[in-house]
Design brief:
37% helix; binds zinc ion
Length: 206
């Protein structure tokens, strides 16, 4: 398959993002997956089972908006969690999903949601202009049935409106944004804020 210039640009951004995310230790042992939306609505996404810190161009594939492979490669089992975010939010152009220690521990301590407020770094999230903000990140039970999990996320947003990210318990974090760069900024800020909350509340409250 001959990929478009748009695909190659975004694929390279995802490769670079993976190197950075891996340098932080947020995608151990081939976990996680990343994607970015092309102007034509198709999506560049990491191939299943590749180490996200050592991605090559061949490890990024093309799917359509309904998660069908367009190049014969096999996407991650979690692809539907990406495509449902793109369908819901026309402004979202990238989705990043790491399996970080902070997101995993946060789900063990805070159970159904973590509330982030009165942090200067909240301003790293698109649209937030003051530390006097309250951001709720919901935590969903892990589920190997991905369409069912995607449905749970949809229902939450139907009831509570748009969110910046969500955590899957004992698993990892999903966050998104208007570009790969913006999504990386969201990820880095959320990891810092989870870290603050974990240090504040400790890890022994099980
Ligand atoms: Zn995952």
């Amino acid at each position: 398959m001959i990929y478009t210039e748009d695909f190659l640009i975004l694929a390279n951004q995802l490769i670079d993002a993976g190197r950075f995310i891996d340098s932080k230790g947020w995608v151990p042992a081939t976990s996680g997956n990343f994607s970015a939306r092309l102007p034509d609505g198709n999506i560049a996404i990491t191939v299943s089972g590749k180490h996200k810190g050592r991605l090559q161009l061949d490890d990024i594939m093309l799917i359509d908006a309904d998660a069908n492979s367009l190049d014969g490669k096999k996407p991650s089992a979690e692809t539907v969690l990406h495509t449902s975010l793109y369908k819901r939010f026309p402004e979202v152009q990238s989705v990043l999903h790491p399996h970080s220690i902070n997101a995993t521990l946060t789900s063990r301590i805070f159970k159904s949601e973590i509330v982030l407020e009165d942090y200067e770094l909240l301003k790293a999230l698109a649209g937030i202009e003051t530390h006097e903000s309250r951001v709720v990140i919901p935590i969903f039970a892990n589920d190997q049935n991905i369409p069912r999990l995607a449905e749970q996320v949809e229902q939450y947003m139907n009831e509570h409106g748009a969110i910046y990210a969500y955590i899957i318990a004992g698993h990892g974090l999903y966050t998104w944004g208007g570009s790969v760069q913006e999504t990386l900024r969201h990820l880095e800020a959320l990891e810092f804020l989870f870290d603050c909350e974990l240090r504040l509340h400790g890890v022994k409250r099980l």
